[in-house]
Write a structure and sequence with these properties.
The protein has no helices and 30 strands. With 328 residues, it is an all-beta fold. It has two domains: 170 residues, Methylamine Dehydrogenase, Chain H (7 Propeller); 116 residues, YVTN repeat-like/Quinoprotein amine dehydrogenase (Methylamine Dehydrogenase, Chain H, 7 Propeller), CATH 2.130.10.10. Strand 10 and strand 11 form a beta hairpin. This is WD-repeat family protein.
Length: 328
């Protein structure tokens, strides 16, 4: 069995990510812990609500109850990108060319590398935001759909409509599909590579709970999701994505919910975290399972792979975190 190096942190830990070979853990209290020749702590926020790894740089982007949007470097250094006084920032995204997006109320904001900021007004509150894989374009999830904005132009938004509350959003790595998490225990998707205004709908339903974690496989053939007593993994390699196809159900455990999913950076192997703290590794090709961590004190709230894929950091709502050495 792989070895686990434990790290006990006081309180709820909301995310775990690697920057280079250094694992980082972000707490709801606002501290950032990293294992770098011992445990180092950065006081980042007065209450942290969001922490993501910027896919375009070796940094973290965080948002907090103090209205700040920060960039955290590999050495733990903090750069304040924006500050919205007396507002909570729970939606952030990292984009190309040093751009960062965040949302507050009925507006999406994109801060460019030169420090200038563009605001995009929405009809309803923004619950999720994502950058497209190509071009400087964002998707803002809201009630009754998604708004697509080109950052560098004043063109009107392209609206993708679907009734209900959309709470998160992600583009497929090739940009052909857009998928949202919904309040109604479902995913909804649009196929984007048709004619303008011809985005086709994809309904992905049947979850017993809300989907709160999504992860694309390295080449975008699969989209894994939480919200069931197994990881629900939808096929996206065909021209029309998962339409008319059943998902894979990996790591099934009776009545024990999956709370976090994270695909390996190079192989079609999925890490699956459960509400009881267990973590499984499952190979897509044959469904073979490997126990990576036995049950712990709290639900797995986030996982992040090292660039080599040999190490997996995990966060827990009870603070019993750690790093798993897959190769051990």
């Amino acid at each position: 069995m792989p070895t686990v190096a434990p790290l006990d942190i006081e309180g709820h830990v909301v995310a775990a990510h690697f920057l280079g070979d250094t694992p980082f853990f972000a707490t709801a209290a606002g501290t950032i812990h990293r294992l770098d020749n011992g445990e180092k702590v950065t006081e980042a926020h007065e209450g942290l609500l969001a922490c993501i790894r910027d896919p375009h740089s070796a940094t973290l982007i965080t948002g907090g109850e103090d209205g700040k949007i920060l960039r955290i470097g590999q050495d733990g250094g903090v750069t304040e990108l924006a500050h919205v006084p007396r507002k909570w920032i729970s939606v952030v995204a990292g984009g190309p060319q040093g751009a960062v997006a965040y949302a507050q109320g009925r507006s999406s904001f994109v801060r460019l590398a030169d420090g200038s900021t563009k605001e995009f007004a929405e009809q309803r509150s923004v619950e999720g935001i994502a950058f497209a894989p190509k071009g400087l374009r964002i998707a803002a999830a809201r009630y009754n759909g998604v708004s697509l904005h080109w950052v560098g132009t004043n063109a009107p938004a392209a609206d993708l409509e679907w009734k209900g509350a959309h709470t998160g959003v992600t583009f497929s790595p090739d940009g052909r599909f857009l998928v949202t998490m919904m309040q109604e225990n479902a995913l909804h998707g649009w196929k984007l590579d048709g004619k303008p205004g011809d985005a086709r709908h994809m309904r992905m339903t049947g979850y017993p709970a809300k989907v709160k974690s999504l992860s694309w496989s390295v080449k975008g053939k699969w989209l894994a999701s939480s919200g069931a007593p197994a990881a629900i993994v939808w096929p996206f390699s065909a021209k029309d994505g998962p339409m008319g196809k059943a998902p894979l159900e990996l790591g099934t455990r009776a009545d024990i919910m999956v709370t976090s999913v994270s695909f390996h950076p190079a192989e079609e192997v999925l890490a699956i975290g459960f509400i009881d703290g267990m973590i499984l590794g499952v190979r897509i090709a044959d469904g073979k399972e490997a126990l990576l961590r036995r049950p712990g004190k709290g639900a797995i709230t986030g996982m992040g792979w090292s660039a080599t894929g040999k190490l997996l950091a995990f966060a827990s709502e009870a603070g019993d975190c750690g790093v798993i050495d897959i190769a051990a």
